[in-house]
Amino acid sequence: MKFFIDTANLDQIREANELGVLDGVTTNPSLMAKEGIRGDENIIKHYIDICNIVSGDVSAEVISTDFKGIVEEGERLAALHPQIVVKVPMIRDGVKALKYFTDKGIKTNCTLVFSAGQALLAAKAGATYVSPFIGRLDDVSTDGVALISQIVHIYDNYGFPTQVLAASIRHPMHIIQCAEAGADVATCPLSAITDLLKHPLTDIGLAKFLADAGKK
Ligand code: G3P
Known about the structure:
The protein is of the alpha/beta class. It contains eleven helices and eight strands. Strands 1-2-3-4-5-6-7-8 form an eight-stranded parallel β-barrel, surrounded by seven helices. α4 (67-78) packs across α5 (92-103). The longest helix is centred in the C-terminal third of the chain and has 15 residues, at 144-158. The mean pLDDT is 97. The site of SN-glycerol-3-phosphate has 11 residues, from α7.
């Protein structure tokens, strides 16, 4: 299972990378705005800065919603750095653009996926990654992890190479449940990754080992 960090915050990306378990980064327009990154030049520089910190895939999202705009914007983003993956929303023109990028060998991440049918379309269009938003499903009393299991099952039935990238992860249990469900990737806030470290028995055990080591 790959771990991506879901942020545009460079300090958090560096911290996750230094932990040695980071495989990539996902961003979206909201995460960029949260860091105050606005304007074409600043956005482009920020994506390049992220690519220079990590060695894996970095998703950069288009904001156009028509085929021509998505293609133009996606090609510009893909040309920035070999690690860039073009993130495309699950809309009609987005599906067409996914197929276009697939045929051109440009990697894609189909975002805002909330159903198995949408995930099937993304795979048919050749998306590199599909991003079901599990936290936002949980928010509306729908089982997000169950959707991950359903998509993994469907992709396995037909050998689709599209990787299931569990997104909108809110806490460490989401990561564990997605691992059980067979997600290829979990994209997480830094806190969900570092919370995996925690266990009180580890702390108690370590305190005892250190105390015993200090005894004559
Ligand atoms: O990867 C998608 C993610 O950024 C959405 O997360 O917490 O806004 O639902 P959230």
